[in-house]
Amino acid sequence: MRFVWIGVGILTTILSTASPVVATAGYKIDSYRAEYRLGRDSENRSTLDAKVTIEVETSEGSSQRLEVPKFTKTVNRHDTGFRLHGVSDQSGRQLKYHWRDDQLSIDIVGRQTVVISYSQRDVTRYFPNNELDEFDSGI
Fold first, then answer.
1. The predicted structure's pLDDT at residue 114
2. What share of the chain is helix, strand, coil (3-state, %, to 5)?
3. Could you please report the per-residue DSSP string of 62-83?
4. What are the CA-CA distances from residue 42 to residues 28, 96, 114 (Å)?
């Protein structure tokens, strides 16, 4: 079975990263990079491994909370098995973070590079009309 990349639009829809980070007063985003790796597990189910790197700077070295968009954990009423593997700085030191529902907030001070890594499974869907697995946007 083949995977088809529908396009960045649907990928960002399913991952809820259409607006990478909520910009609020008190910090600015200098860079936002995302790496996505699509694969299969031993049960032949689709997997997605993600690493998001955000370079951010707070005003005058103040302490702020960086708010990342909500993570999509279910699509078409099925669980994607979302797992947060880590929230760290560029050296691998774990950063303090908070969850409110599916919203992740990360405590930042001064200039920091934030690295968020997570995985999901069952992120594609087989469509018999074209005999391909495609990203399941849930739309």
1. 96
2. 10, 55, 35
3. -EEEEEEPPP--EETTEE---E
4. 41, 33, 31
Domain boundaries, the chain: 3-127
C-alpha–C-alpha distance, residues 40 and 121, integer Å? 9
The structure's pTM equals: 0.75
Rounded to whole angstroms, the Cα distance separating 56 from 30 reads 6
pLDDT tens, position by position, 60-86 = 778 888 988 788 888 778 888 999 999
The H-assigned helical ranges of the chain are 8-15
In angstroms, the CA 76 to CA 137 distance is: 8
Of 7, 118, 135, 6, the closest CA to residue 68 belongs to 118
Give CA separation, 57 vs 29, 66, 97, 103, 111, in Å: 7, 10, 17, 20, 4
Q: Which residue has the tokens 């689709």?
A: 46
Do 108 and 101 meet the contact criterion of CB atoms below 8 Å apart?
A: no
